[in-house]
Amino acid sequence: MTERPDYTELAADLTAEMMAFTRSLxxxxxxxxxxxxxxxxxxxxxxxAFCVDTHLKYAxxxxxxxxxxxHLAIWRxxxxxxxxxxxxxAWAEALTVLGEEGVPDAVYxxxxxxxxxxxxxxxxxxxxxxxxxNRASVAFRLVPGSKDEAWKLTAKL
Length: 157
Fold this sequence. Notes:
mainly alpha; AhpD-like; 62% helix
């Protein structure tokens, strides 16, 4: 496998800007635990090992339950998520894997039943951010756990 550079070091200025944007999402009405669930689920879909690892640790640090993290891949069938969380996960998936028709009306309507328009916008920005991180981390094959010390990630999986 071809070794790839660490984009967070080579483009440290842009990484810092993206980090600032990501940190700004903490100011939204979306609870931290839900933001982390969305981050993990989107990262699973995008097959970003680095981000799955990172956001599982952030979710645990935020107090997320291990059982819910295990159920994240089966959230539709799981009794561990409420209707509002399921709507957020459906929205995140629809924005991550865009079909020919974009986001189907059925998904939009289901999300709109649980979330305000402002909250939907905030969720969309959470999804945009993690999709961006996923694409960079997959492209440059960032190694899971390689930033734990620098990012002060102390939660253990």
